[in-house]
Design a protein that fits this description.
Blueprint: E1 17-21, H1 25-35, E2 39-44, E3 48-53, E4 56-61, H2 63-66, E5 87-91, H3 96-106, E6 113-116, E7 122-127, E8 133-137
Parallel strand pairs: 1-4, 5-8
Antiparallel strand pairs: 2-3, 3-4, 6-7, 7-8
Length: 144
C-alpha cells in the first residue's frame, strides 16, 4: 500500500501535547513549576506531572512508571516511555529572552547557547534536571 492508497484525512491542525521523560518528578516539578513558573494541571504520585503551556500541554513522565501496563480499565492508555535526553522548545518573544536568561542564571541554570538563527530569530538553550535540552526561541524562528 502506498500513501496514495490511503483514505484522505486533513493534517492535524496544531500540537496538543508533547512529552518529556524524567526519572525524578519532584525535581521536574521544582524546575518546571518553580523556576519556569508553568501552570500545573495535575500530578499523579511519582508517575507524572502535567503543565499548561499556552494552548498546549507539556507532559512530564517518569519512564519507569509509564512503561508499566495500565491498571485502570477506564483509562486504557498504552504503556510508553523513553530514556535519554529529549528536547522541548518554548515560544518566547524577543526582549523577554533577556529576562529569562537572567532568571535562569539567577536560579543556577547554565545557558548552553544563546544565538541568532540565519532568519534573525534568537534562541537560548539550557537543560532541565534530567538533562533534557530545553530551548526558548522567538516564534518567528518557524515563520511560514
Amino acid at each position: 500500500m502506498t500513501d496514495q492508497d490511503l483514505p484522505f484525512a486533513a493534517p492535524p491542525a496544531e500540537l496538543l501535547e508533547a512529552a518529556l521523560y524524567v526519572p525524578d518528578i519532584d525535581s521536574a516539578e521544582r524546575f518546571y513549576g518553580g523556576i519556569l513558573g508553568l501552570d500545573p494541571i495535575v500530578r499523579v504520585g511519582n508517575r507524572h506531572v502535567f503543565y499548561r503551556v499556552g494552548a498546549g500541554i507539556l507532559l512530564i513522565f517518569n519512564p519507569e512508571e509509564t512503561c508499566k501496563p495500565p491498571n485502570n480499565p477506564e483509562l486504557p492508555v498504552p504503556s510508553h516511555g523513553a530514556h535519554g535526553q529529549g528536547h522541548f522548545c518554548f515560544a518566547v518573544e524577543g526582549l523577554a529572552l533577556d529576562d529569562w536568561r537572567a532568571r535562569l542564571e539567577a536560579a543556577g541554570v547554565e545557558i548552553e547557547a544563546d544565538f541568532h538563527w540565519p532568519n534573525g530569530a534568537r534562541s537560548i538553550y539550557f537543560r532541565d534536571p534530567a538533562g533534557n535540552s530545553i530551548e526558548m526561541a522567538e516564534p518567528r524562528l518557524w515563520e511560514r
